[in-house]
Predict the 3D structure of the following.
Amino acid sequence: MRIQLSDHFTLAKLIRFVMPSVAMMIFTSIYGVVDGFFISNFAGKTAFASVNLIIPMQMMLGAIGFMFGTGGSAIVGRLLGEGKKRNAQEAFSLFVYTTFIVAVILVTVTQIFLVPLARFIGATDNMLPYCIKYGRVTFCSLPCFMLQTMYQTFFVTAEKPKLGLRVTLVAGIMNMTLDFVLVGILKTGVTGAGLATAISETAGALIPTVYFLRKNDSLLRLTRAAVDFWLLIKCVSNGVSELMGNISASLINMVYNIQLLKYIGENGVAAYGVIMYLNFIFTAVFWGYAIGSAPIVSFDFGAKNDTELKNIFKKSTGIVFTCGVLLFAAARVFAPNVSKIFVGYDAELLKLTEYALKTYSISYLFCGLNIFGSSFFTALSNGGVSAAISFLRTFVFQVVCVMLLPVLIGVNGIWLSVTIAELLTLSVTVAFILKNRKKYNYI
């Protein structure tokens, strides 16, 4: 039976509704990890470290699509809750067209300035050729990557989370198959890995576009849309927390890489790359839950259903905290296996990576609550609070920690930085939740 945003959500129904989004985000992360596996094992650790330098820049630009998706979904979900379906479809269409135009502009800029950008983020003479080869290919598919990211959120708002999952599965399987053929068999290295990613992103954007252009049985469809700058400003202000969070996360990855090159060298960057691949998968659980539950929050907020808003908030915090404990335990248990998959060919690097993974894993106890807290306020159209939580979490606290802790306690300070930053952010998240409880009536 189809679950609707207007339903009362029991624990089982809530999990059923968000699971496609969680699975979608996990699978998206997994096929990104496959890139890393093939590059590391077939092109070597220098190529692996080089790609891990350039990926944060791509994620930072791709976050614009996530911004339009989360910020726009809050608006569209609220309009649907108010019974304004036509307005919701026009707003959805405007956000899609705007995202594509912005992405095309960004492609041009990145192709022109790719070499100095790679140098700026720390690429050495040995790493620069790999950065350029991978970046030239993958930046060309940036419009598709941004649209694919945006559609992941809107599929949930359209009450079609399972369709979103199927699209992601198709794109992911395509990417992994092409990685196997191009990198594993044909030995095309980082260029082949970039091409596999670009092709899969194109599929991940074209399939939803065709679906929403045609008559369908979802709540949304692409239609004509007049330019509405006020609506775009509202969308950006709603989603700016996700944009800043992703940009900050990408920037902080660059800072980590710079610090690791300084304190450890190339091995440090490679070890951090493995951590980030596992981190993509584990935090995908939290991001998937946030994406899956946000339209429910927006709908109930628009419908002024305080009882259901309280129900979703209470159940969500319990689910997210439980997932954090389970992910922490899993990271500790499987750290040796994960490390061996990526860098088992180098004993010194393997030992470093396993230790770093176990230390980093403590952060999973806290980060889920912060991700959900930021997303929850975005869904309530409170972009200011959401942005504050996200920016403090992904940038301010981490920059301070990663720059200061290594000076005080050595290399261990780099691996512990994220946990300290998440703890500091959690105190801010709790403070905002308590401060705004009467305004939104979610407690």
In short: The chain has one domain: 11-440.
